Input
Amino acid sequence: MVSYHKMSNQLNKMAKKESQQHIYQVRKKFLKHWSNDGLRLPMPLMSSENQQKLF
Output
């Protein structure tokens, strides 16, 4: 399983190449997918420390 933190970093790198609007859509799909898996992560609100406790 890909860690949320790694995926988030990857999306941030992509954001520099793509438009902000596009990356927003990608993040939305990504977060929706995670919610469906039962992991509800409020993206900007979670500190790295809390993220690491989950994995």
User: Anything to note?
Assistant: The longest helix spans residues 20-36. The chain has a mean pLDDT of 65.
